[in-house]
Amino acid sequence: MNKAIDLTIKPQYIKNYMNGYPLISKDSIVDLSRVRDEGAIVNLLDERKKFIAKGYYGKQNKGYGWVLSSKKEEEINVSYFTHRIKTALKYRETFYNDENTTAFRVFNGEGDGVGGLTIDYFDGFYLITWYSLGIYEFREDILTALQSLVEYKGIYQKKRFDAKGQYLDDADDFVCGSRGEFPLIVKENGVNFAIYLDDGPMVGVFLDQREVRKMIRDSYAKGKTVLNTFSYTGAFSVFAALGGSAKTTSVDLAKRSRSKTQEQFTINAIDVDAQDIIVEDVFNYFKYAVKKEILFDVVVLDPPSFARSKKHTFSVAKDYVKLLKEAIQITNKGGVIVASTNYANFNMGKFKEFIDKAFRELGGKYKIEHTFSLPKDFKVMEKFKEGDYLKVVFIRKVT
Ligand code: SAH
Question: Is ligand 1 within 6 A of the CB of residue 193?
Fold first, then answer.
């Protein structure tokens, strides 16, 4: 490894870094342009050259790298990563011991001490996601560390390198061990999911919604009509159907969503023909439902942070209120809207303001029954609350 590069922190940011703030941001560094190489080790110093923290340079949409240690002498090598991953594995012990859930996050970036890196577990397979070229430079050390700590069937990877976090196509993403046979069937609270680790950026399920799915199945679905918008592979619909819903309706723009959703129903012995799967722009569907006076007991809203379709550009920050208003209009009185977003740039407080605004503008009353943020396996740092990007609110439409 090349010699560490010294960087100077602006005075007003020193306290932050001393307190354990993990993200190396452009604004906080005087001379960031001194680093060019992704994966370079950087020492963060104050203006009198006193050591504050050590990290790596890796350009991401979130910043320019992550702090790795507050110890000057600590080397970033196999033993460093072994220690971090070992601690992370211990923290997930209950997940490993739970036969009903065989898919979960093992390592959650800065929450487990190394920003830009996540590792997920899928029934014996591991999926590493690299969020910058910088962290990818450490791949050999990280792989060696992981391989020494876990038994695995196979290891796969996703590269999300460019500044927008876009997926970089890399054949079938296989790294080592044995190749899986896909779909791999994993379990979540006893429910099956079909997972494809070798087929593009998304593997079939978003693990961070586990508790929300369970809540829908166990407490909200029985006898209800459920509309699942931005439904992807229909994970929420599957849980609703298994919870005894009267019917689920899944709406997603992507053509693949139909077969993917059918597959998830089928592997859970749910009658596919009794469910509706609609391939369409959600905003068109709302119009259709209003016109036909179709109402639902439960409406799930889980849009991507940004989306572009032929007719609409949607951004959570700009358009969530509008989306909520559409949903409110097709929800039965006494029904429930499950509003979700993974947009990191506003917090739960702001999200609740959107909800309030939507109901106020329509002149309706509501009651918040549950809120969720990231589950335990998506470990978040106390000093970096932005890391807890997930916000889900169960809203009862009272009038
Ligand atoms: N709620 C899903 C994950 C959503 S991923 C789950 O829990 O698994 C985002 C999905 O939104 C993608 O499948 C994408 O195809 C879909 N999408 C994006 N814009 C859309 C639009 N305007 N109408 C319908 N679906 C849309």
Answer: no
Residue 113 phi/psi, 5-degree rounding, is: 100, -10
**Domains of the chain, with CATH numbers?**
5-69 (2.30.130.10), 78-189 (3.30.750.80), 206-397 (3.40.50.150)
231 CA to centre of ligand 1 in angstroms: 5
Mutate to test the pocket of ligand 1, among 202, 233, 252 (most ligand atoms within 8 A of CB): 252
- Assess whether the C-beta atom of 252 lies below 6 angstroms from ligand 1: yes
| Cα 144 to middle of ligand 1, angstroms | 36
Q: Is the CB of 230 under 6 A from ligand 1?
A: yes
- From the alpha carbon of 228, which atom of ligand 1 is closest? 1
Q: Which pLDDT belongs to residue 1?
A: 54
**pTM, full prediction:** 0.96
Mean pLDDT by 10 residues, the chain (399 residues): 88 96 96 95 97 97 94 97 98 98 98 98 98 96 98 96 69 91 98 96 96 98 98 98 98 97 98 98 96 98 88 88 97 98 94 98 97 98 92 97
The sheet with strand 225-229 has its strands ordered as 276-279, 247-252, 225-229, 296-301, 331-341, 391-397, 366-372
Give the helix/strand (H/E) hosting 41: strand 41-45
- The C-alpha atoms of residue 364 and residue 325 are separated, in whole angstroms, by 10
